[in-house]
Design goal:
heterotrimer, A alpha+beta, B mainly alpha, C alpha/beta, A: alpha+beta, 4 domains, 6-stranded antiparallel sheet, 4-stranded antiparallel sheet, globular, disordered C terminus, C: alpha/beta, 5-stranded mixed sheet
Chain lengths: 660, 173, 181
Amino acid sequence: MGLTEFGHFALISAFGLSLIQSVVPLIGTARHNMQLMLVGPAAAISAAVACVIAFGALVTSFIRSDFSVALVANHSHSAKPLIYKISGTWGNHEGSLLLWILILVIYGAVLAISGRTMPALLKARILAVQGMITSGFLAFSLFTSNPFIRLANAPIDGKGLNPILQDPGLAIHPPMLYLGYVGLSIAFAFAVAGLIGGDVDRLWAKWMRPWIMAAWCALTLGIALGSWWAYYELGWGGWWFWDPVENASLMPWLAATALLHSAIVVEKRGQLKSWTVLLAILAFSLSLVGTFIVRSGLLTSVHSFASDPARGVFILGILLVAVGIPLLLYAWRGPQLMSVADFNLKSREGALIANNLLLVVATAIVLLGTFYPLGLEMITGARITVGPPYFDATFNPVMGILVMIMVIGPVMAWRRGATPRAKTTLLAASVSAIIAGVIGVALVQDIAIGAIGAVMLIAWLAMGIATDIWTQLKPLQRAGLASRWHRLPTEVLGMWIAHFGIVVFLLGATGDGLFRSEQVVRAKPGEVVTIAGRDVTLVRVFERQGPNFQALTAELEYKNAASGKFIARLMPEKRVYTAERQTTTEAAIRPRLGGDDYAVLGDGDDRIGYSLRLYYKPLISWIWGGGVLMATRGFIAMIGRRRQYAVTAPLPDNVARDTA
Amino acid sequence: MIRSRLYILLIGVFVIGAGTLILPLGGTATAITAEEMLADPLLETRARNLSQKLRCLVCQNQSIDDSDADLAKDLRREVRAQLVQGKTDEAILSDLRAKYGDFVLLAPPMAKNTMALWLAPIGFLLLGIGITLGVRRRTTIPSPSPISHADRAQIETLKQNHKKASKHDQPWP
Amino acid sequence: MSRFRPTFFIPIIAFLGLVIIGGLALQGTLSGSRNPNQLPSVLIGKPAPDVPLPLLKNSRAELALDAYRGQPLLVNFFASWCAPCRAEAPALEHLSNQISIIGIAYKDRPQDTLQFLEQYGNPFVAIGRDDDGRAGMAWGVYGVPETYLIDPSGQIKWRHAGPLTRDVITTQLLAKLAEMQ
């Protein structure tokens, strides 16, 4: 079909346009030539249009099941439902790379269109940096991972998609994640542009913040989606595995969180500039490192695409240039950004420095843990594993300290000292923590020390936020409740929601981690197993035929053990996908706010019984609920900015400005 | 003073908070079947804990507790067999380590070549604090010299004058 | 105004370290000298494990490795259900002319093993049975096929996980054998 060739051509034009975008605006800034600088936005928008065409062409090939396109032949199948044909476009290396590029150029175009009042020099430099990144990735795609390659002899049908990947969660997870990873490139471009021009100041931070927020929200949602998907699709019952590719998504998130907070200080107080620039560079660099891990085949992971070390070399090259040069620039020009510190360490700035420090240390721990086995192997040839026990022992305590600071920071004043309400908040938080600990020890037998600590931390944070809200709202008591909320800056509301999201997340993680119930049995049809106050009857096990699989399904009837009342029917199964000859386990999950019922079917037959694993996981969905709550911060931020602009919009000269 | 008590309270909560969460929070299901489980619940708990520390060698980053692979089953059986024989947890882990190498342990052992890995977290923290404090020392405005007596007297006079003058003003909104 | 602060160079230095590791690893993978799926054996340089195994053809007798002291020896773990084992059968056949090979049937049924040997040839001087895999564990076996080279004094000198290909034999095995001479 000509469409594929057209898409291919569009991609090549996008490459050319990006190259122009990288070079011309910079020349414009050097020569102070406005015409040249304006080439930036024009090139960015055109490149975006070209990539939309290219991506559209690829998706169309998948929808039409055009098996003359090599990618479609290798990764799709005519029997696949439409939505998975579409999502199959990015279920492979070449297609997901094209998606990455698409999001990259769209971000660039949005930046080009918005930000009309942004200083022209800054904008030109940012678009130039964006253009360089885009060119690099387009080169990678066109020269090593071209999605538009045709097959001389089109097969009758495709090789099909991995059945595990045929899932709605998977359809959204990569795009959402990429919105996050790639969004950080804008912050990165801001940082590099700032280093080049030396104009890192409060205005720079103000312009950068919405981009950081957008990327951070998307990344939070993307990671939460991935974790939720792994839980309900893989049948392992877990939600985080410290897998190298998962780590690759966590590291940019940690850096972006630090960046978010650091940028606040730059915008409000003009401090921590070099920190912020470094964090912006780091966040996107870690996104690139993540790409390297996933696509180079160096680290084995359940997430890796078909590994090709030759491609890894190309990405390493991109990495070296895209990260090395900015870091060199930072080493050289960074010190000039440092402003005289006019604050005490015992202040909000101090708390935010601690926040930055802890998040960077946490990121470094994850980075070290992920790459140490590789490094050791290179140096000594020894093979070791760095798995969950290592991260639990090192990463979690650092996060624990951070949670402590999350209550202290907001009650500190800028520049020095604590606000008057600090005493109330800290006292309330400490007391609740101690009470929670005591209750924990009293209620749960053989409670682990770590469990006590976790429960105390949650109480500390929850009460800290609650008291903070109360002490801030009380002075506004004169007006009614509704206008109280309106008087608070949306930033504070957003902070409460985001931090509360962490409370919710922690509740979910500890609820499931510490208080879960498990039953592993071999049961024959008719037998009853009791778990968490439920009587579970294995009614029958039967075979069924699905659209592209055959399944062995168990019917489990859940009844309340005390009252005998019917609760639910769960049907876990084991599936064999005919085209791919793969077996998957489909866990049956009954998600509820209070906890999930989780059932997995193993092997067996009617004679010897079937292997059944039943779980009750209290509060586990709060893990992802917490993530969504954190991401909601972003929407609040967007509403808030509009309000802010409304309040500070310039008034016509003949209207007096009210000082209220 | 309430202040110092508050600090003690804070530090206490801090310490516990930091020591916390050495719990596994990743949460997983298990791959064991009913037949594998030992009759003695204490031994079985030890077996599960040990299994979660051992890597499934033919899987990608799973413990033998989580994996359905044949080798994982064999290793689980071996762990339980050794537990029934009365061996300690450390002995079982060393035994498997002697046969399969450090690779089989999910948490790298404390050895010369992994010392950097285990000390790094604290090292990073100390390094970070050191750099931050060091950089601050060089960029902070030096605190002003203490007020002289003459200046202090002048301040007092000014304060008295201000009080007299503002007695009749409205308080700030 | 240019200030020089060494601490600002920490990120770039750390990054270059990462790149060097990544680069070396990639180079190793590309040149084939590094295979993420191959686990080095920790028993190299140690005496071969002394686990009693019944013989395939006579379950009352035991396989005794000491009988083969004084000459280099290959120990090959195989199974009838293992596809790569069939692939390496001709290579083993060829090797059996140069060196004695002992086979250990890993988690297999005797009748299946015998059928396998009939179909693909029997290069072994003796065959033991490891029905439940416990003996394999003592050797550090984590899959089949695996081949161990034992020197005349009974020490393990080399282990290869996966089928023996011509490449592996010529570049590694023969080199190790030559060392022993």
